[in-house]
Structure formats: C-alpha cells, structure tokens
Amino acid sequence: xxxxxxxxxGSLAAVFSVRLLGLxxxxxxxxxYARHLTGAxxxxxxxxxxxxxxxxxxxxxxxxxxxxxxxxxTMIVLGLVMFAIGSAVAASSTTIDGVIVGRVLQGAGAVxxxxxxxxxxxxxxxxxxxxxxxxxxTIGVSFMIALVAGPIVAGFVxxxxxxxxxxxxxxxxIAITQFAVPNPQRLRVHRDAETVPAxxxxxxxxxxxxxxxxxxxxxxxxxxxSFLVVPGLLHGALDVNSRDQWMVYLPVLLVSVGVMVPxxxxxxxxxxxxxxxxxxxxxxxxxxxxxxxxxxxxYVLLAAITVFFAGFNVMEASLPSLVTKTAPPDAxxxxxxxxxxxxxxxxxxxxxxxxxxxxxxxxxxxxxxxxGLALLWLLAAATMTRPSYLTTRLLRIENEHADDAEALAAKxxxxxxxxxxxxxxxxxxxxxxxDSKVFDSASAQSLVGAA
Length: 451
Prior knowledge:
It is built from 17 helices and three strands. It has helices spanning about 5-25, 30-35, 40-50, 50-70, 70-90, 95-110, 110-120, 130-180, 200-205, 205-225, 230-240, 245-270, 275-295, 300-325, 330-380, 405-415, 440-450; strands at about 390-395, 420-425, 430-435. By secondary structure, it is mainly α. A three-stranded antiparallel β-sheet has the order 1-3-2, covered by helices on one side.
C-alpha cells in the first residue's frame, strides 16, 4: 500500500478500536455491577448488556447510506458524539433503566459501515483488501485486549468509570477522525465495501449467505448470554471477584489464539474451510454441554471456557472470509453489511433472551439455551455448500474499454482463474471472482487497459 493509504487505514482502524475497546470492556464485569442498580432484575441486566446491539444493528446500514450524501467524517463524528452521550448517561445512572437508555444511545452511534466506506474512499482498488484486513485485525485484537483490560480497569475506577472512559475514547476517536484521517477527494459508492439497497433482496435470498448470517448471529448471542452467568460462576468456583478475573481470561485467550492460527491455516491454505467451520461449531456446542453438565466443577468450568473461546476465535476469523468467498462479485459490501447487522442483532437477542431465561430458569437454563442455539447452527453449517475458495478482485477500466460491458465481461471470463465477472460501466469497474492460485493478473489488466 502507498504511504497515504497506510495512514488512512491505520487511523480509521484506530477509530474503530477506541470505540470497541470500551464496548467490550464491560462484558466481563457488567453483570456483577448491574445487580446493585435500582430496579435491576436478571432480565433487565441482560437487556442492558445487549440492547446496544439493537440500535447498532438497525442503524448501521442507514448511517452508511446517509454518509454517501452528507459526508463520511460528518457521520463518524455524529456517531461518536451519540456514543459519548450514551456513555455519559450510562455512567451517571444509578438505575438499570437509566443504563438501558445510555446503552441504546451508545448503539445509535453506528459508525462501523461508514468507517469501512471511508477506507474504500481512501484506498485504490488493488489495495483495498489489505486495508480492510488491517481494520479487521484491529477489531479482533481490540476484543481480546478489552476482555482482559475490562476487569483491571474496573478494579481502579469501577464499571461507571469504564463508561466515563468510553466518553474519553469517543472524544479521542473524534480527534483522530478530524486530524489524522485524510480527507477523500470525492465520495463514491463502493459495491465491495458498502450496502447497495437495490441488492438487498438478492443477497437475502442467498441461502449460503443466510447460513453465515445465522452463524454470526448465534455466535454473539451465545457470547452475550454467557457473560450474564460465567463471571458469577467463576466467582463461586474460584472465589475470584469479577475485577480479578482477567487472570482467567488472559491464559484462556492465549490458548484460543494458539488454536485459531493453525485452524485458519488449515482452512485457507489446504482448503478445508467447511471442515474447520463445522468442527468449530461442534466445539462451541460441546463447551455449552460441558457447562450444563459441569454442576459448578471448577475444572470443567475452566475447560469449557477455554474450549468456547477456541471455537469463538476460529469463527470470528473465518466467517468474514467465508462471506467474501460466497457473495456475488458485485455484492460483497451488501453481504458484509447484512452480516454485520446480524452480529449486532445477535448481541441484542443474546442479552434479552438470555436475561429472561436466567430470571426464569437460572444459570443452567442459560446454558441449555446456548446449547440449543449451537446445535441449530451446527445443523445449518453441516448442510451448507462447500466454499468455492474464490476471492473478489476489482479492476479499474480505462474509458475506451467501458463502452461494451458485456463484451469486456466475456473476454475477462476467459482469463485463467476467473470464475465470474460483472462489469459496471458507469463505475468503470470490473468485479471479478477469482481463484488466486491460478489467476493471470497481467492478462486481466491488459484487457481493461489498466497499468
């Protein structure tokens, strides 16, 4: 990537990171904190933990579409202001209802799609995948840091202090956006990075994409529901309060990363993606069955948490790759937008339904719920079509080659390694699905007239 592209991708990844750090830091410590709020019940605690996912999931695509009209940075700053206001409301609330309102406002700052669109504005087509990967890695690292840092920070400033820290992180994100992120020369709709409303119907009819959407929905529903119960179980089994539980999460996450790396290598390099996917879902189901049957045994509990995060990290790393492999060449952005919204809606359902089940049926009821979700997902994963191992490649078309889109697409389909082509003459872009192992890039570039 060029220097200005590295700056753009790095600064926007930082904006993503400072926002996610705060959101995930409260996961391991929120349930214990919320029990002492006025009006708290297990149901309302679950609602408070998960409801930001509802506003986030519903508003993410509209935020992205609005940014096409009024500007990316404007929408990012607006979203971060909403996030800061919601964080301040949650920090200053002494009632569970006040925290719920704050969490709704936090989620209303749904800037994820806008950030990805701005990454696309600021990078060339041939470097965009690398820039997006940089942002994706940042998200994963932020999640793991937050789970360990949350209990440590809560030990110093409390959970309300974490909410105030989110206010500061939002202001930091605004500063990065205004002063570090380059200004795009012009705004364009990027089919590989943004949701295109006209394509929503066709993407929602794609059964394999729907299976992946169900997967990320289920994964985050399980995660959110589990954090309503697991901190209390660790406290009972190890006599470790939630603020010291980073000592459990740190080695668990290190082990999970050790499992994730070879699993992804096997999936991608040796093209065993479906095998790895189904195995990881089976591992997640096993972890929940262990929690159902463990009956408070400390060794079973620790083993189950380790197994869960091993499967969780494998899925977090492999599902986005599967979405890009499965989506039509010109619908990658739309498929990714629906996938991301499914993740946030899963957080909402996991919190709300998990909280309700916890109130009615206790800890065991929550794990019966998550086991059922995992088994449903396992059935869906086992019946999915084997992935094609194709990636999306964008080629910019020189003016004289864009007149006859169908003829150009037919020629590009003859290039070794090209499985599908869609040429959008108005955008002067060709969207290709390719097998990177045999793709003849030089021949494709010569056909479109690009250097």
